[in-house]
Structures are given as C-alpha cells and as structure tokens.
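Q: Hi! First time doing this. I have a protein sequence and I read that you can turn it into a structure. Is that right? Here it is:
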Amino acid sequence: MRVDTSNTTHLAAQNIVQLPDQGTRSILPQTKQILQKVWKSHTIPPIIQIFTWRLNRRALASGNRAATYSNYILPSCTACGLIKTDAHLFFHCDLPRTVWFTSSLNLRTDSLPNEQDGIQNILQIMINSNTDENQLQAILITLWFIWKARNDK
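A: Yes, that's right. Below is the predicted 3D structure, encoded as structure tokens:
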C-alpha cells in the first residue's frame, strides 16, 4: 500500500500560522508565550492544553458570547445576575472566588482586572516566566474544573 505524503510534505513546508495581533481573536505577545509553554509541556493533559488554547482565543461559549448568537441563552449569570464574561466566570463570581481563595494558590480575585473580553491580562498576572510547571498545571486545571462545574450546573 502506497501512502500519499504530498499533503504532509506541503503542510510541513508552510510557515507557522501567525495569530492576529489586533481584533476579536487577537493574542497578546505574553499570551503567545503562555500558550507555547502549555503546548511544550509534557505533564499538562491534552484536554487542558486545548481548553487553554480555546480560553485564550476567546473560543469558549460564555453566556455573554453565546447570547449574541441565540435568544435562548441569557447573557447574565444565574448565580448573581451579572454579565457572564470570561473574567466573571473564572474569577469574579462567588464560586470561582471561593475556589481560588481556598486553593493552594490562595488567590484573591478582587484585585484582578475585570476584563470585558477574555482573560488574557489576568493570565499574564498569574503566569509569567517564573511560573514553574506545577504551578502552571495547577492554574490551568483549576480553570478547567471551574469551567466544568459551571457547565454541569
């Protein structure tokens, strides 16, 4: 059996895709560094890597984002009534505030910015070049479990 490798060869010869620096899907340079660190990690599970990529690309269906496409989805949080932005869902509502404060990271989310679109700035505060692999994994898995808990509810 002969395997056609022309497409594979063609794809391998292409330049790396550049993420936009402006617009709704833009990625900040520091966020690119975070994503590179996540993709290079051998300890972060693939589901968490993909979740992190979607989170940073603003590709998760938060209530605010999903409500623009459907009249059946409310943009407001059922727990507190505020608009469900990514920052609200992962840091500023009661559930995530409790999770972060009681976690091993002991994060007070009231000092974090209240971003309107995404959480790139918040992640830059939490994750930097000094963040070790275990801390990075703890942060990302905590974000994923908050997302899962919110969706399960």
